[in-house]
Amino acid sequence: MAGHHIRLLWRYDPILYAPAKYRKACAYQAFVPEPLADLNLALDGATAGVVSDAEGAIRELNSHPPGALAPLARLLLRTESVSSSRIEGMALGARALARAESRAEAGMRVGPTAREVLANVDAMQAAMDAATGDCPFTAADITDIHRRVMAHAPSRHIAGVVRTVQNWIGGNDYNPCGADFVPPPPEHVPPLLQDLVDAVNRDDLPPLVQAALVHAQFETIHPFEDGNGRTGRALVQVVLRRRGVAPGYVPPVSVILAADRHAYIAGLGQFRCGEAVRWIAEFAAATARAATLAARCLDAVRDLQTEWQCLLAAAANPRADAAAWAVIEVLPALPVVSTASAISATGRAKSAVHAAVRQLVESGVLLPLSTSRRNRLWEASGLLDLVEGLEAGRAPSGSTLFKPAS
Q: Distance between terminal CA atoms of the chain?
């Protein structure tokens, strides 16, 4: 990919405050990328091999026996969303987020950072839902993802609104002069966004190549005033889901990108400098690592569920249709669980879930997080250790059962 720069003049708006040194007019260069929808790109043999390896790793991940697919799929989608938020500086520990998620589901108050990260999980789920149908992907789908991403952000007034002003990355807060990167002027954004949508709807490129190009082009356009990174990384998963490569489980590529944020940003810079093939190779390598790590994690979670079942059978041995077995099936999506979330996830009666929680606590599967009789929360033994390892890019190993942190 390539593009061209437009030399523009920034004039100070006296309505907006700026220190004296930023009030002078200054020149800057805005970058306008070439259209993507009709791009023909030839890959060298080495890059084609990395792309093939990555797509194979994603397919291998999705070939795992479905089992209780929804909870396991939710676990990976949640990890992708959390890591994508971490790239933007919204770091929240796995345990803190899991508790906040359970509190939010029970109608309790949670902190602003947790609300914003949870909004990104919701946005990712909505993106996957939009990608599953047969309808063409549209600009409205992109703005809907962004609206959900920004639903609880301090700048929520811009949620789902394509920018009509110039934005920039780096430099100072008052003008784009000296910025690290200046995206296209606002009048170029609508046609570029439509071209991007057309690129999402292509089916003639290798899926991973398409995902890498769509993501980099979106970040280059930067069509919103804020929230572009999280929205653009959601588009990676949209492409992979639409192309049928990741029908069940998303490869949490943001885990790998977050581990080396500087390399990730440098890769986007390479794309803008016309080195699209180099960017594709690096993105494919990150995706292959993410998919392989995710597959290891799914295996470990299944082993953990088997451990839970053995503990429950040894301690209580409930009937085959007891609610406790159903709670174990949904626990991968609920690292911290309340009775309300367990009722919602299993569809079982309140009395049956209360009995199930008591049995699971007695067998050591659920670990109480408080002694209060109201709004009680329990942690699924061992699960958050796996989640923390996955979010940190570590492959699981050894026994997963643990005593919870205080």
A: 51
Cβ-based neighbours of 190, under 8 Å, separated by 6 or more: 162
Residue 153 has pLDDT above 60, yes or no: yes
Residue type, 272: R
Q: Do domains 3-294 and 297-391 have the same CATH topology?
A: no
CA distance 60 to 44: 24
Answer whether 265's CB lies under 8 Å from 220's CB.
no
Q: Is 113 exposed, middle or buried (0-12, 13-18, 19+ CB in 10 A)?
A: middle
Question: How far from the centroid of its chain's Cα atoms is residue 171's Cα?
Answer: 27
Residue 32: its H or E element? strand 26-33
Model pLDDT for residues 70-103, shown as the tens digit of each residue: 788 888 988 999 999 999 988 888 888 888 888 8
Domain boundaries, the chain: 3-294, 297-391
CB contact at 8 A, 316 and 359:
yes
Examine the pLDDT at 263 and tell me if it is beyond 70: yes
* Pair of tokens at residue 114: 């947790």
> Is it true that domain 297-391 has CATH number 1.10.10.10?
yes
Q: State how far the alpha carbon of 194 is from the alpha carbons of 17, 86, 214, 217, 235, in Å.
A: 35, 29, 12, 12, 14
Mean residue pLDDT across the chain: 91
Positive or negative, the CA dihedral 24, 25, 28, 33 is positive
Q: Edge-to-edge strands of the sheet including 366-368?
A: 336-337, 378-380, 366-368
Name the CATH superfamily, with its identifier, for domain 3-294: Fido-like domain (1.10.3290.10)
Instruction: Fill in the DSSP letter of residue 26.
Output: E
- 204-259 confidence digits (pLDDT tens): 999 999 999 999 999 999 999 999 999 999 999 999 999 999 999 999 999 999 99
CA distance 270 to 369: 47
User: What's the per-residue H, E or C state across 119-143?
Assistant: HHHHHHHHHHHHHHCCCCCCHHHHH
C-alpha angle 344/345/346, rounded to 5°? 100
C-alpha gyration radius of the chain: 23
